[in-house]
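Appendix B, record 7
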Amino acid sequence: MADKKYKKIKIKAGPKGWGGPLVIEPTDEKNLIYSVTGGGIHPLAAKIAELTGGTPFDGFKSRAPFEQIAVCVIDCGGTARVGVYPMKKVPTVDIYPTSPSGPLFRFITEDIFVSGVRVEDIEVLD
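Structure tokens (predicted):
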């Protein structure tokens, strides 16, 4: 779908969360709202997709190139997934209030990662 109109959102850290805020605006090339939480599309990823016009994508069931991911929603307490997406420069939203840790902690920076996020921590900017 070419020239789809996407909306810009701001995602801030929730209570006891860390990082951000992230400003997310999908594009035609980078429109996936990637959910890597198990059990389908997480409600937070669904809400981000709804607000931005991005495409919800279950990253547990299937894979997509990092270049197509507008934002990745994870539920990681602090080892693997928490660093994989930031390492690939994919904006990452953790539903848990984690801070940089694990073997990839150096890639987890405030400009690409935010944690402890709830639906009410998302604001539409358009």
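Remarks on this record: The chain has one domain: 9-124. The first strand starts at residue 9 and ends at 11.
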